[in-house]
Amino acid sequence: MTYNNLGNFYSDDADRRKETEGCYQEALEIYKRLAAAQPSVYEPDLAVTCIGLGLFYSADANQDERSEDYLQQAFAIAEKYRETNFCCAQIYDELKDYFG
What we know:
Elements: H1 2-10, H2 17-37, H3 39-58, H4 64-81, H5 86-99
């Protein structure tokens, strides 16, 4: 969670793009490992990191494909947990018109 939060924090600073990306990528790898063992516990956190990465890459015109991939991943997870997880419900609502 700390890496994801640092990614959010750094994302407002254009001079810290590498740090932002690194924090989000580290969070992504950790959540993937945790979600493999306990999906219902950690997939919602994985969705939050995926939407963070998707939004991060959407700010870069050269990363449109990566942005869409992460946003799709976030939406798929959010759709699965939207009834039981508040963050997933919010992600689902934000992305349903785009992917739904």
